[in-house]
Amino acid sequence: MAFTxxxxxxxxxxxxxxxxxxxxxxxxxxPQVSKDAPGKFVTIGGLKTHYTVQGEGEGLIVLVHxxxxxxxxxxxxxxxxxxxxSTVMAYDIYGRGFSDGTTKSHDLALYVSQLAQLLLKLEAExxxxxLKPFTLVGYxxxxxxxxxxxxxxxxxxxKLILMAPAGVNIPMPPAAQIVKMPIVGDLLVRFxxxxxxxxxxxxxxxxxxxFDPKIxxxxxxxxxxxxxxxxxxxxxxxxxxxxxxxxxNEEILASLESLGFSIDIIWxxxxxxxxxxxxxxxxxxxxxxxKLHTIKECGHDDLVENKAAELAAVIxxxxxx
Length: 321
What we know:
Layout: H1 5-14, E1 26-27, H2 31-34, E2 40-44, E3 47-54, E4 60-64, H3 71-75, E5 87-91, E6 101-102, H4 108-121, E7 134-139, H5 141-152, E8 157-163, H6 174-179, H7 184-199, H8 213-229, H9 233-243, H10 250-255, E9 262-268, H11 276-286, E10 291-295, H12 308-320
Helix pairs in contact: 1-7, 1-9, 4-5
């Protein structure tokens, strides 16, 4: 199963959202919080998407985050290391970061559509780069999103990078299985979710409980902010768990082998969230042409935190070759 460490526990807290959110509603971020957003906003289908475009280098790198965090939390340490040579675009998937949420099903079609429409709207701001072949990077659940996009719009993808991606058929954690159950999962989440979310933070790090206290503090603060001030956060996580192919995206992944763009995989060898061994082996069987880049002493969250410089170096090398 592919979650960031916080998102793995978020499966429990997310369930309660469905108890009070009727279908078809837009769920915006608290306006008092949104005014401090680090990026810009564009409206897609009545929903505001929070995004950033940085750098003026050759070519475009598009970054897609995972289940639990928005672009700033996921790529805040990575983007500055890419913008000297490239233009970088990142955005918040519906319900994450500062983007509006919705009680519609958070399935692959919704997320692929969001990205496609965003690229169209940002043609002028990117100097036309968003509608020319670019490097597309997906992290964790973002790996599912970019694989679906690449299958639908292969002419827009020059290079595909999957970072510790979801989608391979590996066992789903018991908590995730339970939360997908109607009512039972929602009620379980209501009573035990909040504390479990924070207790799972060490699972994303090579150092376990001893991971950087500054990073822990930042993650906990961002989590508290999202849960308390974003009406769509919990709905989006629960709906993604129930409707995204997080452990059964193999058909789409296998279809990428025959497409014309290159594919690279970046993985921390100590990933316990999207387990490096079985998941990377399964993925390479599905996409034999893909090249695997392994980062040592690296857990799932470490990849974009204390290993951000090493990660950015690999992305730059792939993008520039």
